[in-house]
Amino acid sequence: MPTLRSAVPIASFLVIAAVGSAPSQAAVRDNSLEDLRKQAAGARSDLEKATRQMEDRRKQLAASQDQLRSKLKDLAAADRELDRIRGPLAMIANSSYQQPGAAGSMAIFGVGDPGSALRSTSDVTYLAKDQQSLVDRANALQKRRADLASGAQDLQARNAIAQTKIQQDVNGLKDKSARLTKQLTAMLAKVSPDRRLALTCDKSLAADAKKFPNGLIPAKYLCPLPQKGKQLRADAALAFYKMNTAYRAHFGRQMCVTDSYRSLANQQRVYAERPGFAAVPGTSNHGKGQAVDLCGGVQNQGSPQFNWLRANAKRFGWLHPAWAYSNPFEPWHWEFGTEGDQ
């Protein structure tokens, strides 16, 4: 089971070296946040791994319980057969004791001459002819019963110990993850909204998001935009945060977004409502999480907002595709990382 580093105290993040040029407070804070974010992400990753191990252990435990039930079933069968054998053995012993002399009774237990004792009557002879096989079978059943009981007890003990240990590991990881997440949340409250979103959006998620079909990207691989309810693929979202910051600095307000990532079901709805103005479901860049529809003036070609984006969007990896000028005409539609207007 992997272990986590102890959470670094927040105060240690703010220490600046006394020798040489000191980094800015913002740079120290960003580095602190990034380091803590990585620790929190690592804790969550370890927690997920431990949880998977727990599930594997539960499956193994279920299989062990099946094995245990089988052992107990065999044990019950052995007990039943022992009970069945005890009857004939008791009859042999009882018949032998009823014969004159001690030789007959002792022969059943391996002492004296079994031939003279067991030949005394035809009934005893009939019962005694399988005496040794019954005794051997009884001994074998007794040994099997002891082995089954021992195996069942050992199986129960090992399962209980393993289950307790994995649960302790998971509980410990939950505590560490919660502590790191709490520290991260407290530090994120001190930075700007755009910077906060950037620090909580992991760019590495973009590669995984590309593995999913258009419009079927799970929410965990998308990052939220400053506009409530809007999401994009991680790399597109990170670029959008920067563009939004520059836009807000110029116009005094953040960008207006009417649409962003679009699920396959939502794309089918839009396609049905706007035939000829929406991409065929499964082909839209909205479904890839790398397109937005904008408002707030951008939807009007030639407006200050549209012109600003046309002049600056490329610096952030965003483009207004050439097709959106005519087929169909969509000045509001912008895409990340695609061939577009030159």
Automatic annotation (TrEMBL):
GO MF terms held by the record: carboxypeptidase activity
Residue ranges constituting the D-alanyl-D-alanine carboxypeptidase-like core domain according to the UniProt record: 230-336
Pfam families: VanY (PF02557)
Coiled-coil stretches: 33-81
Key word Membrane present: no
Domain of life per record: Bacteria
Signal peptide positions on this chain: 1-26
Keywords, in A-Z order: Carboxypeptidase, Coiled coil, Hydrolase, Protease, Signal
Gene3D superfamilies, sorted: 3.30.1380.10
Family matches, as PANTHER family: D-ALANYL-D-ALANINE CARBOXYPEPTIDASE, PEPTIDOGLYCAN L-ALANYL-D-GLUTAMATE ENDOPEPTIDASE CWLK
Name of the featured protein: D-alanyl-D-alanine carboxypeptidase family protein
Organism: Actinomadura parmotrematis
